[in-house]
């Protein structure tokens, strides 16, 4: 007996996509645009070093199995429907009829191709291989202990992909936005040829566009994929993606009209541009927080950690750092959607705590540091960049004025900072996390006892079991309860992490373009974009 | 002469080797590693390190590197998948060189003309006007100039594009930015050495023979006045070919300067090494060539150094 997941959700998402106001604008066919992308790091191989550069490419050229819209509704991309076995282990993806840009069929083998290549123990570039470890046999094969035949991601036939998990995973479909679940043409995309993705003959698209040419260090051009099953919805003929590292240069290029879309601009752009000029705020799923080292006195005392959390005035910090830093009392990203309601995750519960100077002073006094007396000078490490430095200074000033305690600021070069964090060589540290996929678990499971990302030594049984329960809970409502419980333990009960701000990306998108949607990560999606006249 | 040249070449090779060693160790002294990206799992990071041999002891790494280098193999990029360093240089160098050479030629031609103009003009206002321009040219840093040019001629006036190098219009702003400093330098140099040469006996002699001012200037004086320009041309070309980091980044030119900046911020060890060696070779050979040319033009140098 199998459960059909394709349900009311899909109907809702279809209806939404049809009446969504962003899609209501008249557009003309044809035309081309230029996009600036910051990074030329990595490549376009979903089974390889897939970073921001891949994300930019994939949202135009590759259709994964499913994706999510800005309200968290599932969008069936390559998968037409999905079945899950009653025990939650076997997931069957029924693929729709679609073709690659060379006219060949998109088959289940193309999805297996990426998975197998990413897990290949000899693939030195597969940075997201661990995202596949939920699949039965995947971790063993990747570690060189198992065999490829035992990896339970198989093409049952051309249009059926069957994935068997090692244990139930309630958020498995959310992980489909990870590169390793995207297809790459079997037989053409191989690990033997590391440069396959640069050659239009081997680098095929199954999405709205496909690669036309690739020039290292310069950029790449994309043309409309005529074989795409939604080709009639695609307006633009060509997209030119340019690698541009300098933010000022990006802004100038936008102003001269040489570039139509730029992301990640300085915050002053948000103050001088309006929506009519093309301002687009990308509400990222990110969180910047203070990480107290639990092995360091007096940070091992929960009262001290709470005092610090309550003493900070986040509005002031935001106004010092810039308009792209939004005050946040939440560890799970401010704009993370809930799985079981149409709200943000944070809005489903009472605030985790409230800023309260008096209470902060009381707590510090209870911990034995009346008016900050006898409190050691703690160090606060942060990456030595302008914004982080401003934030650190604001935090220092506030802790001094509210709690009368001193902290010593140490700005570090990125790699030093990462190393110190990994080694536990810090007292207080500014940490940040950006979601890989839209699910609170992506933030919360960083702090289960044995996780390598648990940098400050959180070891809390109640927390671990809340996470384990949420993994096994297939009912969204029930699961969400566990996730909230986990965040409460992490923040409001123990202040293992001290939330401070969330960050947004300032983008500019040529206002003469319409049909620009937003996905569940707040990211602008322009595969169906077109000029309004 | 042969002895002089071979001595210079040997010195060049020694300094290149020193450069390789120093760069190699300095890079590895930087804390952290190239794969410290925040969202990457630790086990995966360890695998990446061992895949690229970065878990080996440092002397082993150096030995492997030197061995490969002897075969002309500069290695592969850690961050640009499927890219060898040789490819990277072959791709970026033409942009950088074209830009550098155009900037050099414009600086040379215009600089000489302006220098001469300053030296021969009888109008005080013209002289001081040009003087102010050259002082400005020397003192305004090129990233400031680049941004000003970009804002005024690109963004405000829309005369020239500001991204890349695809048409001749794209060259205008970066070439101006790059050539202003050497241009100012050359014009000051030409002016002073021209004035100095004009006071030489052979000029008086030429005058006495009844030669015209134009002929004296172009044939006799310029030949001598240009010697200092030749001398600084070596370092200047090297400066133009290697010194366009900022300009390339601002105008999004895919040359080796931009690549270098990216490589440093990405911790892409092999790219940093490869580009350092490549730039080192250019620098050493530019200096070598200008030394040789000077020795050819000015016999006194040969006597002093060559023995």
CATH superfamily label of the largest domain in chain A = Periplasmic binding protein-like II
Characterize the overall form of chain A: globular
In helices, the fraction of residues of chain A equals 25-40%
Within CATH, the superfamily of the domain at 85-267 in chain B carries the name: MetI-like
**What is the level-2 CATH architecture name of the domain at 85-267 in chain B?**
Orthogonal Bundle
Q: Estimate the helix proportion of chain B, in percent.
A: over 70%
End-to-end gap of chain A: 52 Å
Rg of chain A, Cα atoms, Å: 24 Å
In CATH, what is the class of the largest domain in chain A? Answer: Alpha Beta
Task: Please report which band the strand proportion of chain A falls in: under 5%, 5-15%, 15-25%, 25-35%, 35-45% or over 45%.
Answer: 15-25%
Task: Tell me which CATH architecture of the largest domain in chain A applies here.
Answer: 3-Layer(aba) Sandwich
Beta-strand residue fraction of chain B: under 5%
Mean pLDDT of chain B, as a whole number?
82
Q: What is the count of β-strands of chain A?
A: 24
| Terminal Cα span of chain B | 8 Å
* Helix-strand string of chain B: HHHHHHHHHHHHHH
* The CATH C-level class name of the domain at 85-267 in chain B: Mainly Alpha
